[in-house]
Design goal:
Strand content: 25-35%
CATH class: Alpha Beta
CATH superfamily: Class I glutamine amidotransferase (GATase) domain
Structural class: alpha/beta
Shape: globular
Helix content: 25-40%
Number of strands: 12
CATH topology: Rossmann fold
Order of helices and strands: EHEHEHHEHEEEEEEEEH
Radius of gyration: 15 Å
Number of helices: 6
Strand order of the largest sheet: 2-1-3-4-12-11-10
Number of domains: 1
Largest sheet: 7 strands, mixed
Distance between the termini: 16 Å
Length: 204
């Protein structure tokens, strides 16, 4: 069973729907025991970094997330869920992220006619092998909706990049922690393939 963390962020039901299409049992919850008992956990979401961290703390979910990760349970952050795994964001100065991975979240540059937010399909490059992308061809297009992007503090955790005004670290992997800036649940067959790869990953 996959637990989808509910912290009043948007885009949660679409993740559940995608998992159900794969035949995966999914549960949207903020219940500590259900999350800790899950075989894998997903932190999805769209919204603002600061308010999201406030809600994670208010619902007691910050400590649950850190415990899940410490136990070696496969964990996937999607979009805002990716950003929250890092240390800070220019969107919310002074607000600390979960700090699971090193790096910062930066505002997309507006130079050169770049439109912000970035909404649409971009192709992926794979600078390093990633378990999420087994069987996925380099150059595959996936769907993005975001105004901020990741600059990881360690290049060795970056498994996918894309280009939109600058190089965007589009996916990372470190041990049992995975994250995507794009939305696999909205990325057609390729996105379902990425989610399928995630649900097949076993606990460390």
């Amino acid at each position: 069973m996959t637990a989808i963390i509910d912290y009043d962020a948007g885009n949660i039901k679409s993740v559940e729907k995608a998992l159900l299409m794969l035949g995966e049992e999914a549960c949207i919850t903020r219940d500590r025991e259900k999350i800790l008992a899950a075989e894998r956990v997903i932190l999805p979401g769209v919204g603002a970094f600061g308010s999201a961290m406030e809600k994670l703390c208010a619902f007691g979910l910050k400590d649950v997330i850190l415990e899940v990760i410490a136990r070696g349970v496969p964990f996937l952050g999607i979009c805002l869920g990716l950003q929250l795994l890092f240390e800070s964001s220019q969107e919310s100065p002074g607000v600390k992220g979960l700090g699971v991975l090193p790096g910062e979240i930066l505002r997309l540059p507006r130079e050169g006619g770049i439109r912000v937010p970035h909404i649409g399909w971009n192709s992926l490059a794979f600078p390093a092998p990633g378990r999420l992308f087994a069987g996925i061809k380099e150059g595959t297009f996936v769907y993005f909706v975001h105004s901020y992007y990741l600059r990881a503090g360690r290049e060795d955790i970056v498994t996918a990049t894309t280009q939109y005004g600058s190089v965007i670290h589009a996916s990372v992997e470190s041990g049992n922690v995975f994250a995507c800036q794009f939305h696999p649940e909205k990325s057609s067959g390729a996105g379902l393939g990425i989610l399928k790869n995630f649900v097949e990953i076993k606990r460390a």
